[in-house]
Design brief:
The protein has 177 residues and is an alpha+beta fold. Helices cover 25% and strands 37% of the residues. It has a seven-stranded antiparallel β-sheet with strand order 1-7-6-5-4-3-2, covered by helices on one side. β5 and β6 form a beta hairpin. α1 packs across α3. InterPro entries: Polyketide_cyclase/dehydratase, START-like_dom_sf. This is Polyketide cyclase / dehydrase and lipid transport family protein.
């Protein structure tokens, strides 16, 4: 058993690229949609995301918990966001999000690449956290949760204004029909 060290998944979201960007490029919001990330805080006095800025994520899978410091390496609003993790015993993973406008809204592609992980560590992680052997389905579920959050925020009328703006946009209706 050896941990899958890279992968890529996409989801189409019926919302404008700017709405998707606001959620994807805010590390503090990752715990709202991630199956593992429980908390995020900025480091080095940063208060928002940007090139070279750092944050720390606290994660959990089953009974295992860990933290990783992350450095943002890609920040091209509203098209690309990426960061690399560090802080483990010789392992690092690059997480990369690409956003592209499509007729129905936005295509969001999430990719990950194990940058450095010794074979012994890969085998240990696969043994201790079998869910990490192939995280395709868990990451797909993350993207579905992220898409639902964007849709809820983009398609919902302002609080206390239900019905004042007419029916929801067509992109919101078609997804729920």
């Amino acid at each position: 058993m050896r941990q899958k060290l890279n992968g890529q998944l996409s989801v189409d979201i019926p919302a404008p690229i700017e709405a998707v960007w606001q959620l994807v490029a805010d590390p503090l919001r990752v715990p709202e949609w991630s199956h593992e990330c429980r908390r995020v805080r900025f480091l080095d006095g940063a208060t928002s995301a940007g090139p070279g800025r750092r944050f720390r994520g606290t994660n959990r899978s089953g009974r295992y918990r860990w933290t990783r410091s992350c450095t943002i390496f890609a920040y091209d609003e509203p098209n690309e966001f990426g960061y690399i993790t560090s802080g483990g015993p010789g392992d690092a993973t690059a997480w990369h999000f690409r956003l592209e406008p499509i007729p129905a809204g936005t295509r969001l592609t999430q990719a990950f690449q194990g940058v450095s992980m010794p074979l012994w560590l890969s085998r240990l992680v696969a043994l201790l956290i079998p869910e990490h052997d192939d995280r395709t389905e868990a990451l797909r579920a993350d993207l579905v949760r992220l898409a639902a959050l964007v849709e809820a925020e983009h398609c919902a009328p302002p609080t206390g204004c239900a019905g004042l703006f007419g029916p929801p946009p067509r992109s919101c209706r078609s997804r729920r029909s």
